[in-house]
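Figure 2 data, in text form.
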Amino acid sequence: MSEVLLNYTRGGKVESRHRADVAVVDIKGEKVWEFGDSKRPMFWRSAAKPFQLIPFVQRGGIDIFGLTSEEIAFMVSSHSGESQHVDLAHSLLGKIGLTIEALACGAAKPMNSKVAKELMVQQSPYQVVHNACSGKHSGMLALAKMLQVAIEGYIGLEHPVQQLMHQAVADSAYLPKSEVETGIDGCGVPVFYLPIYNMAWAYARLAKPELGDWGERENAVRIIRDAMLAHPQVVAGSKRFDTVLMNVTKGRILAKIGTEAVYCLASVPDGIGITFKIDDGSFRAVAPAGIAILKKLDLISAAEHQVLLETFPHILKNHRGDIIGTVESAL
């Protein structure tokens, strides 16, 4: 059962609580630490994206379409809809011979509030390229083109693209495909339901591909990991926790968010994977939870911890700017 991880206080009294489950797993699948229920099943949401991309990279998609490392990072991103991300969407689709009309993810408000405001001022509608999952969908379209299968219906579970990705996700988590159930994600494609322990194990394997027993997939996994670490701004965006954390730790910690506050981390030097799920799905709890867990596991230095606290303060302010409370970890 999930346990209270964060307390939000006001006037020295607890006003709100966030419960969570945490799984920390090494590259051999051994449990390093848990909080709450490390075997809790959950939808992996966007934190599964690195593993969904494996079939495309393994089959030589990078060379076939002449893609850059930045474009690979874009394919696993949950981006903020900034100009860099929009440009990457157009560039990537152009290389595979398609336009944004092929994207079936749906138009969405950019995660970057400044970009969203600028579009409103300009009276410009939100577009599919602003959708945080347009990179993943571009990768799906690229795989369909490479396989020479129909573009139409690429988001359906029975489409060859989704079947390959379903298998890759299951294999990455060391589970039979039949045990990885699916639902429908916010962007319309299948989303995967499995224990957070297996998610953490997959991220441990992503951290050190050479020790992760990937077989023929090892090089593809390394390429995906390195692209994420080389382009943190592409993976998320300005002032986002994923981006800040990878920059602050200089690529020692890999980070990837999923919607509804499922979050995955990988300590590259240690081959350790971490997955936590905030029970109520609150996005505000992600950064303080991630910082607390990394500190608990001694995976960030005191200096890095201080920078993260300065960037994501554990204090609460009112509209006047007065400090009126704190965010406190139970760890």
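Caption note: Residues 249 and 304 are 7 Å apart (CA to CA).
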